[in-house]
């Protein structure tokens, strides 16, 4: 691997290994979440692969297992409080509790309504708050008792540059919800650091998937990134492994911007 390439996920060296750890990754049936689930599994964690769509979660689980990793599908809607409680109970039975929570599901099924805030129907902005803030709060409260009892835990929120930068893209509600979860991570890291739990956000920008938006856009996007490539799920997975590992134990209450050096969020 050279500096210009995305990581491959061969995390077989000591301080980055995650033996005896269980991770829950939400929205891991494709895209960024899939990259995170694969990387955590490659580092040795048992991974509960969540998605709204069971077939997506099943595919990722099968591919992790084929690569020699441990994973189980836990399809549920993270915005449904009851579904979440039932799923968390199942994860407790199967894996003994969630040591590493990665809340990644953040794009509503069917896509986001992207219009100026004044024109956004209240159902659309409420959906963003439910998925990107309320679900974070519920998930955190669901996993904390186990993490506190174990005296170890990792909470990672997948955010966006829209949390800290004004953009004329119709993402005001999305950015506000992401910023709320980033603030929660900062407070959690301080409240729970003393009992062995860290909480951080990874704010993404310029990721693969954007290139589908129109012809010629890909070239322009790549040229806008100082390292001259788009980010991948594997890049985010590498950062999640680092934050989850012993090597990342001093990183706490932080929002890191993964953008290849573009100015998102600065
Ligand atoms: N891709 C990007 O360019 C980009 C940029 C900045 C931030 N992000 C953030 O990264 C995260 C992942 O984005 P992505 O592009 O991989 O998304 P995606 O839409 O490709 O995949 C997300 C997955 O989440 C699942 N999902 C959606 N709602 C769910 C729910 N209520 N419960 C459970 N699962 C649900 C979907 O079924 C889908 O499989 C999001 O939090 C997003 O805000 C992405």
Please give a structural write-up:
It is a single chain. The protein has helices at residues 31-42, 54-66, 81-95, 122-150, 172-192, 217-224, 233-244; strands at residues 22-25, 46-49, 70-73, 100-103, 153-160, 197-204, 255-258. The chain is α/β, with parallel strands linked by helices and 266 residues long. The protein has one domain: NAD(P)-binding Rossmann-like Domain (Rossmann fold). It has a 7-stranded parallel sheet, with helices on both faces. Helix 2 links the parallel strand 2 (46-49) and strand 3 (70-73). The structure holds nicotinamide-adenine-dinucleotide.
Tell me briefly what this model is.
It holds the Pfam family adh_short. This is SDR family oxidoreductase. By secondary structure, the chain is α/β, with parallel strands linked by helices.
Q: Can you tag this structure with a few keywords?
A:
266 residues, alpha/beta, 41% helix, binds nicotinamide-adenine-dinucleotide, NAD(P)-bd_dom_sf, 7 strands, Rossmann fold, single chain, seven-stranded parallel β-sheet
What series of H and E elements makes up the topology? Answer: EHEHEHEHEHEHHE
Helix content: 40-55%
Helix-strand category: alpha/beta
Report the β-strand fraction as a percent range.
5-15%
Detail the topology: elements first, then pairings.
Blueprint: E1 22-25, H1 31-42, E2 46-49, H2 54-66, E3 70-73, H3 81-95, E4 100-103, H4 122-150, E5 153-160, H5 172-192, E6 197-204, H6 217-224, H7 233-244, E7 255-258
Parallel strand pairs: 1-2, 1-4, 2-3, 4-5, 5-6, 6-7
Helix pairs in contact: 1-7, 3-4, 4-5
Bound molecules: nicotinamide-adenine-dinucleotide.
């Amino acid at each position: 691997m050279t500096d210009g390439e995305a990581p491959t996920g061969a995390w077989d060296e000591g301080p980055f290994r995650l033996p005896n750890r269980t991770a829950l990754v939400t929205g891991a049936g494709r895209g960024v979440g899939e990259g995170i689930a694969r990387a955590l599994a490659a580092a040795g964690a048992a991974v509960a692969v969540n998605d709204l769509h069971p077939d997506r979660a099943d595919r990722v689980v099968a591919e992790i297992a084929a690569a020699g990793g441990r994973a189980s599908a836990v399809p549920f809607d993270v915005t449904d409080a009851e579904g979440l409680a039932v799923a968390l109970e199942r994860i407790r039975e199967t894996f003994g509790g969630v040591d590493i929570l990665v809340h990644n599901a953040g794009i509503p099924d069917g896509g986001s309504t992207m219009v100026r805030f004044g024109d956004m129907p209240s159902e659309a902005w409420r959906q963003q708050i439910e998925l990107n803030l309320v679900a974070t709060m519920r998930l955190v409260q669901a996993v904390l008792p186990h993490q506190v009892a174990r005296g170890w835990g990792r909470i990672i929120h997948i955010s966006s540059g829209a949390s800290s930068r004004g953009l004329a893209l119709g993402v005001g509600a999305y950015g506000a919800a992401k910023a709320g979860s980033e603030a929660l991570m900062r407070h959690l890291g301080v409240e729970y650091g003393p009992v062995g739990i860290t909480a951080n956000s990874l704010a993404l920008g310029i990721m693969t998937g954007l290139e589908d938006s129109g012809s010629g856009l890909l070239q322009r996007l790549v040229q806008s990134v100082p390292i001259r490539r788009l980010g991948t799920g594997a890049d985010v997975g590498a950062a999640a492994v680092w934050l989850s590992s012993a090597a990342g134990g001093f990183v706490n209450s932080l929002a890191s911007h993964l953008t290849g050096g573009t100015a998102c969020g600065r």
